[in-house]
Structure formats: C-alpha cells, structure tokens
Amino acid sequence: MVSFENNRQAGPITLFLPSLNGGGAERVFVNLANEFTRLTERPIHLVLARGGSAYSNQVSPAVRVVDLGKRRTTHALPALVGYIRKERPSVILSTMADANVVALLARSLAGGRCRVLIREANVFSMQGAGVREKVRARLMSLLYPRADAMVVIATDILDSLHAAGINTCDKKLFIGNPVRPTEHTVEDTELPEILCGREYLCAMGRLVPQKGFDVLIEAFSRLNDKTLHLAILGDGPLMEALVVKAQKANVADRIHFLGFTQHPENILQHSRLFVSSSRWEGFPNAIMEALSAGTPVVATSCPGASGLILENGRHGYLVPPDDSARLAEAIDESLVKPAGTRRARKARCADFSPQLIATRYLEEMRAIESSGMTPVATGRSESGVGR
Asked: How far apart are CA 9 and CA 193, in angstroms?
C-alpha cells in the first residue's frame, strides 16, 4: 500500500469528472479509482457532475460514487462546493477542461485547503472556437496556474495549451493511462453476429472529426483485399455522414458501425488489424487496448501520444494523418508483415499497468500533501512508470 503517514487524519481522495458515459477519460478514472482502493486505506470517492451508466457497473464497491445530478459540468459548481465543505477531501483529481475549471473554482469558493491535480488528456485547439470555447479557454488560463500540479499525457498536449495562450501551473507530471491486460478482463463479450466467419479490421473511437474516420473509409476503399470487412466501434454525431461516405465509396456493405462497446477486447482479439486514423490524440486508450490484445496496429503519427506508445513504429506502423493513400498502403503492408510481435505488443502494456500508474499518482499526491513539497520525481519516462 502507498501510505500517507504524514497526514493520517486527511479526508478522501476524490476523482471528479463530468460523467461515466462511454469514453477514454471515464475508463481511465474508473481504473484509477478501483486501483486506488487496493493501494491505500484512504477513502476513494468518484464524483460525477451527472450520472452515466456506461461504466457504472465496472466501479468497485469499495469506491463511493457521488452523483451531483447536473446536466452540465459547469452547473455542478455549487454542488461541488457543498461536497468539498461537507466531505473535506484532501486531494481532488479532475479531468477534462470543464471539470478542471469547476474543481479549481470550487476549492476557492469552499475555502478548502485540499490539493487539486488537474489532468489534460487531449491536444487543445481553438480552431472553429465559439464564444463558449473562448470563455472556457480564458478561465483555463486564469485558473490552471492555481492547480497544485497538472498531469499531462504527452508533451504535444502541453505545447498545444501554451500555443493557445493558456497559462499552466509550475508542476507538470507526465503520467500515461492505466490499461488493464486483456487476459484479466472481468467480462468477455461474444463476437457480433455480423463479424462471425469474416476477416475484418477494427477501429474505435467517438464518431467526431478528430478521429479521422472519413480518411479511414477512403483508405479502406483503396485496399487490395476487397473481401475484408471493417468494424467501427463508437457513437457520435458523424454517424450519418460516415454512412453516406461509405455508400459513395461503394464499401457500405463491408463497413459495420457497431456503436459503443463496453468490452471491445473480444472484437480486437479476432481482428486482423487495428487502425487509428486520428488527426490528433491525447493518450489513445484504443491503441493500448489493441496492443493488450496482441493485435497488429496501424496508426497516424498525429499530435499526441500515439508515437510514444508505439515507440516510434516498433509496435505498429505510423503514417501521416489525413493521407488516405499512405494509410491504405500501411494497412496492406501490415496485413502481410505486421510491425513487431504479438508478445512484444502485449509486453508494451506492462509499462502502463493499473497498479504502476495508480501507484505513481498516489506517490505524487503524497508528495504534494507533505508540507507543500514539490511532486516526486521529474526524471521519469513519459509513460509515467520510470525505466
């Protein structure tokens, strides 16, 4: 266990995020909360601005879930202030910009002395920003320097914040995401009937411009093997547009939009290849899950941690984003000669095991709690687990 000997009377460790609806950040916080209960005797609270059921059944009974019952994260500010005053958490770990802003404001309004660690997990962009996004960016710039530390998934994310003129706190912690090995998953899912008996590629993520599924569909239409199918896991606003694009590319009969899948590991394990076509990323959990399943990977070398995870091509092909021709070539080549080995791909996930990543978080929290000391270890690798 990670002890907190210098502050035995301290309150709970609180993880604050918008909801438990399906997404990478939500999966990360569920994994962290569950692992924290195994590593410390401190109470662990998972505080949600609004309820969400996608991952709720994966939360350990040892974690206390607090639903603030608000439709928007920003509307949860008064409720979070009340929570801080009542529960007196010693540390709040928040993720995603709105939740980070609300957590920092709530601490100030509550007069609390709790530490606040904010987590930035995606490349920041002001392209096409409206009034709401501009206000959020201004609040981030004003409030982020007040955080006790910022967890950053990759240097590209920090660079993007600074390029947008957003000030940040002095203490930066480069910590990757926890990924649970496929063989240790609690539940396995049956292969969807549409995929049974077929050879297929797999892609996964929100159906939004960031993920580049439009480029993937174009690349898929260029592949040499016209018998392959493509399974896309995820929901989002671009569903209709992507279906239309698949129809225009004459591949709609071989592309299957399977929606959000709580346990994608079985689909990944049976896939010939996993493809990430993102234009930018944070720390792509989908790539990690593919590696954990031992599945070969082709990914874009977009801003974010994709290249770091794949160790610059050691564990998967890397191609430029927004280049359907190069993506198609890499897929064709990987189907014949995948990068790396199944054993090496699975071994890479050990660097991001939940126990190691959660221990790193707790060590940093303990250091920050201890008389205002600066966080532990600045000489670690960006995976957050050291070498």
From this structure: 54
3-state class (DSSP) for residue 231: strand
Q: Are 106 and 146 in contact (CB under 8 A)?
A: no
Query: One fold for both 5-178+353-369 and 184-349?
Result: yes
Going from N- to C-terminal start, the domains of the chain cover 5-178+353-369, 184-349
Name the phi and psi angles at 200, rounded to 5: -145, 160
132 burial via Cβ count (<10 Å: 0-12, 13-18, 19+): exposed
CA distance 104 to 186: 35
* Paired tokens of 329: 């070539």
- Domain 5-178+353-369 fold: Rossmann fold (3.40.50)
Q: How far apart are CA 239 and CA 260, in angstroms?
A: 12
Full-model pTM: 0.80
Bridge partners of 119? Answer: 95, 151
How does pLDDT run across 361-387, given as a tens digit for each residue? 999 999 998 855 444 433 333 444 333
Q: For the sheet with 200-204, list strands across it.
A: 255-259, 229-233, 200-204, 273-276, 297-300, 317-319
CATH 3.40.50.2300, domain 184-349, yes or no: no
- pLDDT tens per residue, range 179-226: 877 654 434 457 899 999 999 999 999 999 999 999 999 999 999 999
Q: Both tokens of residue 233? A: 């896991």
327, 298 Cβ separation under 8 angstroms: yes
